Structure formats: C-alpha cells, structure tokens
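Practice problem: predict the structure.
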Amino acid sequence: MGTNPFHNALAQLDRAAELGRLSPRAHEILKHPQRVFQVAIPVRMDSGQTRVFEGFRVQYNDARGPYKGGIRFHPSTNLDEVKALALWMTVKCAVANIPFGGGKGGVTVDPKSLSARELEELSRGWVRAMYKYLGPKVDVPAPDVYTTPKIMAWMVDEYSRLVGQWTPGAFTGKPLGIGGSAGREYSTGQGGLYVLNAVMK
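Answer:
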C-alpha cells in the first residue's frame, strides 16, 4: 500500500470486489465519487486580516440513500483523504445495512490555533459554501476529527438560516438540547471496544 489514502481505498475495493464477486459494473461505478467539491472559505481573523481556508465535500455514492459522513477539521486534511473516507463510508453504510450513501467533508486547518469566534466563522463559512448541496434528503454531515457538538450547532443554525426554516435533520452530532442523540458522543469509542472484545475472543 502506498501513502495516497484514496489509492489505498481503491486497492481495498478491488480486493473486496474480487472476494465478494461484485459485478464489474458496480465495481467500476464504485471506483469514482459522484461529486467532489473543493471550496474556499474566507475568515476574518481576530487580527483583522483575512485568511482563506480550503474546504472539501465528497459525495461518493447515494445509491442506497442520502450521502452521510463526517466533516473533519485537521491541518493534514486533503482531497485524497476525504475521497478515501467517503468511499469507506459508502461501504460501511452498505455493510451495516443503513439506508444512507457515503460522503465525507473536511477543512484544512488546525482548529486549536483559532479563537472561538474564528472557529465559528469558519464553520458557518463551510455551510455557506455547501448548503445548496446538503439537506436531510440529500447529504447529512456529521462530526469527525476536531468537530464538536458546538460546531455542529453552528452549522445547523447557519443551514437553517440560509434555507429559511429550522432543519435539525440536516446535521447529526448536535447538542442534546437542539435535537442531538443521546450516546452520540461516545458511540465511536464504544464501537471500537466492541471490535476489540470480539478480536480478543
């Protein structure tokens, strides 16, 4: 395996297609994301200067339902990583028989270096760049690396403002007080524990 995460994901897909006797047509379709967005997000920093951050959303495949997948804020996030994660999300939803497709998003940023106001402006800016392509029946983003319930609250608020009505179903991972799910905060870690227990047996 090389260092390009999307190439690695495609190699895994090839192996899975062989083992699962996937049809050549389905295999070929799954090699390509349906839509790829790369957006520029200007943020007025506390210093008064403007910085432009690079944002992404990959809508990989919606054959099984609306695109679904997290948004990560990380300094090493890039398009190939997001494409790989979106492919894996597509497969994960299918294997778990969840009626969603696969998507993923990200912003190349070290969120720890931003003030709360800068982080809010960045979060809302990502939504402004993408909102026409999101929604409960289209693409439902979620939290991922360094995106918190507070960030999801800013995002769902911005989305709702832009579409003209409160739309809590547009984002998951929100605080409980505005429609979040109990258990969401620790669900990923709990899933990892289930896998570890199964491996140890």
